[in-house]
Amino acid sequence: MKAQNYIRLEFPSQSSNESFARASAAAFAAQLDPTLEELGDIKTAVSEAVTNCTVHAYPDCLGKIGMKLRILEGGVLEIGVRDWGKGIEDVEKARQPLFTTGGEERSGMGFTIMESFMDSLRVRSKPGKGTVVTMTRRIRGKSALR
Amino acid sequence: MNLTSDFESGRLTLYFSGELDHHQARDLMRQINDVLDELLPRECVVDLSSLRFMDSSGIAVIVRLSQRMKELGGRLWLEKPLGQPKRVIETAGIDRLAPVAITR
Lengths: 146, 104
Ligand SMILES: Nc1ncnc2c1ncn2[C@@H]1O[C@H](COP(=O)(O)OP(=O)(O)O)[C@@H](O)[C@H]1O
Ligand SMILES: [Mg+2]
Description:
By secondary structure, chain A is of the alpha+beta class. Helix content of chain A is 32%, strand content 29%. By secondary structure, chain B is of the alpha/beta class.
């Protein structure tokens, strides 16, 4: 699908960048005139995806995180978050609610939240190579409320 | 993210405000553990009305807090979750993860 607009960001996996990533995504999405609830959903999904890179992809070092946002036809926002870290052995298992390799600081609900807040979620991963998470959400916008 | 607290007749109220993500969660949990160790409350209320944002890192904090309250033989409530944090709490189905009550 042809993108009508896009941004591409790259930043190191320090946890202070989580808030930067979701604020950037929200600022980019603003051109679709989203409702407060849609903005909250976008921020949440970005926060989950970026946190996974920080915590799981690069558990004991800083690595590179790439985030790409595109606006597709019909007011669809596509969010791509990529790392070049550890990768996931079994993606299907990782996506199950409550599955976590992160111990008691994690809840295992990240993918479940991304899935329910977005219209689609695709996860591609190779152990030792990295992970790409791609999500889409159609933004109905404030005009849908009127 | 900011934490303040109130303690009165065995009941601890924790007020969360700002944004709670993974970057904030570890420090928050440490502060909560310090308060619990010092006061040994029988009841704990988490007031979420001023929390603007929370992701699943916050869910882990609430689950951990509920385990600590259970160890103390006490109970945990979540009070007034609004907007985005409310949606995350509902989606995670927190009542399935931990024995917490939610009040409006
Ligand atoms: N970018 C990633 N790189 C490596 N492993 C990942 C990545 N994202 C997710 N995972 C794996 O999938 C599991 C589930 O992720 P998630 O649902 O977000 O829960 P949590 O982050 O609470 O563990 C993680 O515990 C981890 O094992
Ligand atoms: Mg996660």
